[in-house]
Write a structure and sequence with these properties.
Blueprint: H1 3-9, E1 18-21, H2 30-46, H3 59-66, H4 71-81, H5 100-118, H6 124-135, E2 140-143, H7 149-156, E3 164-166, H8 168-174, H9 183-192, E4 199-203, H10 206-214, E5 219-223, H11 229-235, E6 239-241
Parallel strand pairs: 1-2, 1-4, 2-3, 4-5, 5-6
Helix pairs in contact: 2-5, 3-4, 4-5, 10-11
């Protein structure tokens, strides 16, 4: 199969030589788990406070302030949007600490409990698309802000489709900025030996499509799971689909 027909078979421009996938909300249904955990954590934190805006956390808050970002960045951005200030804290702050790091730990504990209890489900369309991409011989990577990335892809049974991984642990180790900065996607492309101009990014978060656009990637696919197509396009998505399987010809 020649390059043009290979790329046509997976619905991508002919210059693409690698595919970089976000995890939560693109490959696995864990975005819902994360949204619920953020909601539970922030609502409990806001209850009874007298400083700032203490309205309950909403889906719009999730989309705008925390989706796709490292935990600490999400905490900071949401608190800033509500006019609330907390100390940064230390890296080992426990979940009950009233710090940025403590709130992030509290949220992560909630996510881990749900994953341990309920497992992880991958989107069937994402599995089908990954299988087609790998069958076409296109290298793949997962690029996630989550420090639980390896646990999640193993639990979902998709580790074998993803040859490279840049995640929250990688970012902390290498000092990479989180999305919407393009650092993690650029690190994955470098590890794969491809230029950004020859790689496609797949993201469901506005911060993620912004990262893909800012990194100079040749094609940024927005995956619209929560009815925010316009925001994905505004953020820099070249194409928006409801499910990855929609990229395949004839779907």
């Amino acid at each position: 199969m020649n390059t043009a027909s290979t790329l046509s078979s997976i619905g991508l421009p002919t210059q693409v030589r690698a595919c970089l996938f976000d995890l939560d909300g693109v490959l696995t249904k864990t975005a819902v788990v994360h949204a619920q955990a953020w909601t539970e954590m922030f609502d409990a934190f806001l209850e009874g406070r007298t400083d700032g805006d203490t309205r309950p956390f909403t889906q719009a808050d999730y989309n705008e302030h925390v989706d796709g970002k490292p935990r600490a960045d999400g905490v900071r951005d949401f608190l800033a949007s509500r006019g609330i200030e907390l100390p940064e804290g230390e890296a080992d702050d426990p979940a009950d600490a009233e710090t940025v790091i403590g709130l992030g730990t509290r949220k992560n504990d909630l996510v881990q409990r749900v994953i341990a209890r309920d497992g992880v489900e991958a989107y069937p369309g994402s599995i089908g698309y990954l299988q087609t991409v790998r069958a076409a011989g296109i290298p793949t990577a997962v690029v996630s802000a989550s420090a639980n990335c390896l646990q999640v892809i193993r639990a979902a049974g998709i580790e074998g489709y993803l040859e490279h991984r840049v995640d929250g642990e990688t970012a902390a180790r290498d000092g990479l900025k989180g999305k919407p900065a393009p650092d993690t996607f650029l690190a994955a492309a470098k590890e794969m030996g491809v230029l950004p101009s020859a790689a496609a990014v797949f993201e469901d978060a506005v911060s993620g499509v912004q990262a893909g656009a800012r990194g100079g990637f040749c094609w940024v696919v927005g995956v619209d799971r929560v009815d925010h197509r316009a925001a994905l396009v505004h953020g820099g998505a070249d194409q928006v689909v409801e499910d990855l399987i929609d990229l395949l010809p004839g779907s």
